[in-house]
Please model this.
Amino acid sequence: MLLFPRRGRCLALIMLLLPMLAQAWQTDRSYRFSILHTNDHHGRYWTNAQGEYGLAAQKTLMDKQRYDVQAKGGGALILSAGDVNTGVPESDLLNAEPDIRGMNLIGYDAMALGNHEFDKPLSVLQQQQKWAKFPFLSANIYQKGSDQRLFKPWAIFNRMGLKIAVIGLTTTDTLKISNPENIANIDIRDPVKETEKAVAELRASEKPDVIVALTHMGHYDDGQHGSNAPGDVELARSLPPGTINVIIGGHSQDAVCMEKDNVSVKDYQPGQPCQPDRQNGVWIMQAKEWGKYVGRGDFTFRNGELTLDSYQLIPVNLKHEVKNLDGSVSWLTWQEEIPPNSAMMKLLTPYQLRAAKKLDVTVGSSDGVFVGERDKVRFEQTNLGQLILRAQMAATQADFAVISGGGIRTSLAAGKLSWRDLLQVQPFGNQVVSVTLTGDELLKYLATVANIKTNSGGFAQFSNISLVADGKAVSEVKINGEPLQKDKTYRMATNSFNASGGDGYPNIEAHAGFSNTGLRDADVLRDFVTAHSPLKIADYAPTGIVHLTEQQVQERDKAQEKPRKRSYPQAILAWIWPRALHN
Model:
C-alpha cells in the first residue's frame, strides 16, 4: 500500500513555519510568480539521435528561467503533469531511476500521477517515491472500498509571500488503460467532485491565495473528448467560478496554444506565440511531450485577483531537417542551442552506458518505415500493427489477431533495426496470449472492440480479418478471406493487457479456450523480425477493415429498407398468385 511520506521528523520545523504559512496577502501589493512546467516525459532523460530535448539541456534552461524570474522580483514553481514512466528502453530497464534523479537535480517541486505510473507493480512506484525529492500528487486516487487517499492530495508552496496550493488529479481512464493487475486495489474518483472536496479542505485549513490543479487528464478542444474520459476543459467548466485559478495538464500530449476560442493551433511550430486556453476563468496549459518544451507562465497576484502577464512554450533544442546542396541532410535548431548541464551529464551518463550494452544489438532490417505514431495507430490500420500482429499469430498459431493501437508507442525507421528500437515500440512487457472462440462469441467480441472510437488508445489494430463496423455491430466478417461461421471455432491472438480488459476490451482470461504463452510481446516481435528480415513494408499493407460514418450507416439502412417495401397491389398479388409475382 502507498502511504504519505513520514512527517514525524519534520513536525518541529512545520510548527516553526506555521506563522509564516498563515500570512495573508497585503492590499495593493503585487506578488509575481512563474510556473515552469513539462508533462508526459516518458523516459526521455537522454537526447534523441538529433540531439533534441533531454534533461541535461532542460536543466540549463530551467536554471536560466528560474534566475530570470527571480531577477524580475518573482518566484518560480517547477511542475510536472505526470507520465514520467514508459517509452525509452534505457529508462524502462531502470524503472525511471535516471529520470527521477534528474528531476531532483533540476529542482521539480511536484508531479501529478499519470496513468503510466501504474505500468509496473505498485512496489516500483513506491521505490520511485523514495527516489524523488518532490511529492507525487493525486487527490482522486483512493484505496478501493475506503475513503483513504493513497497519495498526497496536494502540496503548499510559498513564493514571495504568496501561498500557492497545487492539487494533483489523475484521469479516471487509468482504470481502463492500465494493467488491471497493478490497479486492482485502487479507485479513481470523479475529478470534479474530488477537486471541490480538496479545495474545501484547503480553504478550511491552509487558506491558499492561488490554487493550481496539476492534472493528468488531457486537453480536448471545446470539451470534445470522444471515448476518452473528460479532461481539463470539462474540469474547468464544471467547477464553480473561482474554485481554481490554473490547470497545468498532461496526458493528451498537446501543445495547448489557442488559435481562437475552443480551437487549438494545428501543427504548432517552435517559436510561435502561444496563448493558453481559458475556460470559466481558468487558464489551461500543457507543454506537448517528452520535455520538448518547457512551458512558462508569468503571473501577477494583486488584491485577490490573478492575471497572466505572459506565456510561452520554450523549445528544448528542437530541430528541423535541412537538405544541403550535396544531397546530405543537416538538423538545425529552431532557436539558439542550449548547452547540456555538466552536473546532469555526470549523473546520467553511467545509466546510459549501462543500458546501451544490452540494447545496441541489431536484430533485423527493413526497406521502409513501419508507422507507429500516435496520430496514426489510434486512427487507422498501419503496417506496424500488421507486423506486430503477424508475429503474435505466428507465436500462437492463431487464425487472426487484434490489439489496441495505444500499445504501439513509436515507428520503426528504415534500415537496421536494434533491440532498442523494438522495445521502444512495445515497452510495456505484455505477454502474448490466445483464446479459442466460437463464431458467435467472436461476433459479440468484435462488436465491442471494432467499434471503439478513434483518438483513443483502445482503437483496434487487426490482422488476417476483414469486417465492416457501424458503431454498434459488425458485418461481412471474414477470417483469412473466408466468411465467418457461427458454429465454427477460431483462435485469436492478442496481448495480456487487452485480454484482462485493458482499454475497455472484453475480459477473456476466464474463458475455457484462453492460453498464455508466457512470452513477452517485444521478444515475440524480435524473433519474427529476425526470422523475416529484410522486412518489406509492401508485404504488411493493412486491408479489410471498414468503419462506416453515421451518414454511411443511414444510407445503408435506407438501401436495405427499400427492397422490403412492396406496393399494395404487389402484396395482394403475392397472396393470390405467388408464381405470377415471381415471374
